[in-house]
Amino acid sequence: MKFSVLIYEDNAHLRESLSAMISGNENLLLAGSSENVLNAEEEVKSLKPDFILMDIDMPGMTGIEAVRRIRKFNTEVSIIMLTVFDDNAHVFEALRAGASGYLLKKHIYTKLFEAFQEVQEGGAPMSPSIARMVLASMQQKDETENPYLLTAREKEILKSLSKGNSYKMIAAEFSISIDTVRTHIKKIYEKLHVHSQTEAVSKAINEKLV
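RE: above sequence
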């Protein structure tokens, strides 16, 4: 079974190169190619591609807007963004719109078929610099929403503590030993920079940590 690919790229030379790459691969079939996305909705509906290679910066309508429109009626097709941009705004806007992956154009010739394979296996292919940017953003968000970097279990125990539960009750609630509870609470105190249960609970409530 061959997988069909639809290409949207306004650079004629790159579009022809991509078309040749797709046509020359025994597992892929070129469904079509276009220099803009003005008719993308109709084309996707009629051609029913398995993959879409989508440039971001195109005349008339951006690739990101096209992805938004396509996702309104098709959530199955895999859409890989192709772009020279590796800035936060474009990356996250594309991913929020529903892109399946994001490749910089300088990596197309070495990463494209690998990206198709990754999408088929349920992954989200990204150029290395894009992946690092996404990871950094997630870490920054985590530090903002969870400034003390409490683990999920530490949050659960802190919440139980704030209800006035004893170490024994907490141990029973989470099916762990009292020694394990003590170890978790010690780490919680260290992360919150407190020295007692009262201080920990007060800080957790005041700063909405639980």
